[in-house]
Request: fold
Amino acid sequence: MSASTHAAPLPRPSLVALTWPLLAELVLGLLVGLTGLWLASRQSDTASGAFALANNVQASFFLLFRIISMGVSVVITQNLGAGNRLGADETARASLGASTWLGLGAGLVVATCANPLLDLLNAPADVLPIAGPYLRVLAVALVLDAFNASMSSVMRAHLHARDTLMNMLAMHSLHLLICTPLMTGFGPVPGLGLPGFALAMALSRAFGIAFHLWLWQRRLDLVPTARDWWVMRWRRLGPVLHIGLPGAAENVAYRLALLVTIALVARMGAAELATHSYTMQIMYFILVFGLAIGFASEILVGHLIGAGQLHAAHRLVRKSLRWGLVVSTSLALVGALTARWTMQLFTHDPHIIQAATTLLWITVLLEPGRTFNLVVINALRATGDAKFPVMAGAASMVFVMAGGAWLLGVYFGLGLVGVWIAYAADEWLRGLTMAARWYRHGWVPSARATHRRVVRQRHALATA
Reply:
């Protein structure tokens, strides 16, 4: 039996040690988006609305890449927990070919259908001419992000979160360094406006892929072949898709419901769309801790399930929830208390600032419910119980989130307040459902089946 086939399980870091690099990485990404929104708002509130609409389209297509990155992360952690390093490496290689075809497909659709996609979101007439060119350039960055998503998931699954953070820091720094001159112009070169921000993103993503290749070789002793980049290895992708498809479906359902609400907001007017965009940027900073601890829990739970340590996985999720609820709710309270000042980063319109402040106070009620979703859904997925979150949550997303936003925001005329109440109701309904699944041990049969599968695979590779 070779060492690469049956290696000892990796030493597991503490929850905090794994969470903080993920938190820093997410905050970096948000800062870049915040900078782009700020630069767009310097042009006009219309430009900021265009920036937000196009980014929502791009983010929706990015969810396709979660099919691979989400599944790869869980499958690799399970294999490493069982000491099956060869199985983990073959899964990592298989992710590259899948990323190539997913990335090219998504990029082609976005580039050729930019205006129709924006029309689906009811883009106002003054927003569409700005958002369309920006979204077409974003399509290039989208293709490259397919690789960064899967390659970074491989690194995190191997518990190299700090190395991934280093890559993200370098990549985002490059983006920020070159986006302003590309947007505003330098010397005799005219500014490109929002497409300049997208071009800078594409260049930084290409740099990120090169950095990931270096990290794979240096930290994992893993060097992809030319064949790895285009061949679909369906046998290796089977377990990945078993986790990734339901997980991505849950994310896609959420994103589609969110896009419906954004389309409703866009019909309310440019001022409401700008208010929604600004508030969402602040809310992203509030939810980022829950998201980071959810990702960290997924990685650690995957290792524990692979090792057959189900009781330890249960204790870890309970600990994650305690931390997530306390910190996320505290951050939401700070966001609401400081809204009158933070909103001035984007606009000095008193009506927009007042409306955004009201929405952030509703976020204080929303955030605990969202924390249950961010932590428990990721943990369920890591155990192999990937279908329950999408099956249980889809109805809430459709009827409570999207339907509630229309009912309260449009039919009853509550506007953005009605939309935000619908957001909160959806998060709480889904969050309590996921918590009940975990605490009633509905995930245990899937966890036991997952452990048996990775152990059988390890033995098969050892005797091959």
Q: What stands out?
A: Strands lie at 185-186, 189-190. The first helix runs from residue 15 to 43.
